[in-house]
Amino acid sequence: MMKLSVVFLMMHLCWPGSKAGKGCHDPDLLERAEVALDRINKDRKEGYILKLDRLYDFSMEPKGENYNFFMDVVETKCHVLSRKPFKSCEIYGSVGVEVYGRCTISKAPHDMTTRYHCVLLKVKPSAIVGVCPDCPTDIDLDSNDMEKVKLTLQRFNSESGSLKYFALLKVTRATMQWVVGPFYFFEYTIQETVCTKSMTDVNVDQCEMNKSESARVGFCKASHLSGPHLPLSPSIDVNCEIYEPDRLGDKPDPLLGSVEVRPSTSTLPPRLRPRSKNCPGDSTIPKEM
Questions:
Q1: DSSP 3-state assignment of 202?
Q2: Number of H helices, E strands in the chain
Q3: pLDDT of 104-154, one tens digit each?
Q4: Nearest-5° angle of CA 71, CA 72, CA 73?
Q5: Which of 104, 133, 179, 222 has the most crowded Cβ, counting Cβ within 10 A?
Q6: Facing residues of 69 across strands?
Q7: Does pTM surpass 0.85?
Q8: pLDDT in tens, 201-218
Q9: Is residue 105 within a helix (H) or strand (E), and if so which, with residue range?
Q10: Which domains does the chain have, with CATH numbers?
Q11: Residue 133 burial by Cβ neighbours in a 10 Å radius (0-12, 13-18, 19+)
């Protein structure tokens, strides 16, 4: 810890003059922080793309090759498998930000590896219900709910033009609200299997995943509504984005890090006051929660 503090202090003493003056409001510095966060998002295999809210603090050597970025982030509706830039993604939340947190992105002297660590926190369900009583809220999936998820995936497989079946990888979000009956919303990732649609009597649950380099993955958003007053029950809607395999990697240098998602009953870790002049930057995203 002492060694890290000394490095941090030395990098502060070596700021370029313009960045030291404008601090976290410097446009060039913000652009570098945005590029760094986009690279982190592309490095991840699970979770949702994070969007920059503000730059909280920073340190940087004159040449800009070594840096520490401390930033506030919010979660978006885009899954990391899409590899989209965060500026093209909408913030996740029915009535405001529902998942927010902090990221540290660092590149130390004589180290080619960019390191990162993010801690995210979910807004308490009571805060959402207090603002919007009828909005969907998170649910814990049981076996009946999983059957509903599988029904939506069956619909996609039956209607898609793909020559192969896709199987469920992971349910990433599940919410529910009451309309004329229970209205479920699911988000999940899928992967191409070795089973083709030319086969008969296929049980997708028994199909092996396609592990070749050409295997495609996808991200689905689906809904399931049932009730006695519906002409067709259940009413199912599903939309999946399918992504081709990324062979280029898009990694100019190695990355190493993690993203931790804490429950709404937890808290974010404490942090020091900004050491840089004119920091933190302005929050660009209103947090109603």
A1: coil
A2: 5, 10
A3: 999 887 778 899 999 999 988 888 888 888 889 899 899 999 999 999 999
A4: 115
A5: 222
A6: 58, 105
A7: yes
A8: 899 999 999 988 889 999
A9: strand 99-107
A10: 2-130+249-262 (3.10.450.10), 137-243 (3.10.450.10)
A11: exposed
